[in-house]
Design a protein that fits this description.
The chain is of the alpha/beta class. It is built from seven helices and eight strands. About 35% of the residues lie in helices and about 20% in strands.
């Protein structure tokens, strides 16, 4: 669904109100390795609108805010792989379509774009390396039409999370984008965030180079 000007205005207002309360999710951001300036740059925030503490992740395009996602920020819930936790890891604004996260970074991209699975990996990669980075929202949520966003870009690096679903998703995305794309596998158990957190930015950048 296309966002009307009124809707974009109300989403932008909501996102900035939530960003003002980013302090409430600081301990969650710390576990992710997302620093205060990086969180501020992406206007990450917090809300209890859904009954428990959540990190708000606004989707910006050059036209404004088109969606907001809400990630559970209870550190004790971790990555939600434990099925006894009855909590939705991610919630979204109702009535929003599916979007590529951080699409505005494509404007300044000509030589290289990095593609991650998930919004917060995109925040980590772009926030710490400066490479224009977009995130697709989950292994089974790539939309065919997004390949047109990469037309004419010299090199597209698709990061594969280090597990079977992650590798399959990255291969699928790279094939959909076409010849400019190649997959970089970060190794068993790693995603972009954990790699940068555990091994450092320069080693991550080195891993991306051929
Ligand atoms: Zn949760």
């Amino acid at each position: 669904m296309l966002a009307s000007p009124e809707r974009k205005k109300s989403l932008a207002l909501k996102a900035s109100e939530m960003a003002a309360n980013v302090g409430a999710v600081q301990s969650y951001l710390d576990t992710r390795g997302i620093s205060e300036p990086v969180a501020a740059h992406y206007k990450l925030g917090s809300t209890t609108e859904f009954g428990s503490l959540r990190l708000s992740i606004p989707y910006f395009t050059p036209a404004g805010v088109v969606d907001i996602k809400y990630r559970c920020a209870l550190t004790e819930h971790g990555d939600h792989k434990d099925k006894s936790i009855h909590c939705s890891k991610m919630m979204k604004e109702s009535g929003c379509g599916s979007h590529l996260y951080n699409a505005q970074s494509l404007i300044r991209a000509s030589d290289l774009v990095v593609v991650t699975e998930g919004e917060l990996d995109a925040v980590m990669v772009e926030g710490y390396t400066g490479f224009p980075t977009v995130g697709y929202p989950g292994t089974s949520n790539w939309e065919k039409r997004w390949r047109y966003c990469f037309d004419g870009i010299g090199e597209v690096i698709v990061i594969a999370d280090g597990d079977d679903p992650g590798r399959k998703a990255a291969e699928h995305v790279a094939q959909a984008i076409g010849t400019a794309a190649r997959v970089v596998d970060l190794g068993d158990g790693h995603d972009a965030s954990s790699y940068i957190r555990d091994l450092g930015v320069s080693q991550f950048v080195e891993r991306l180079s051929r």
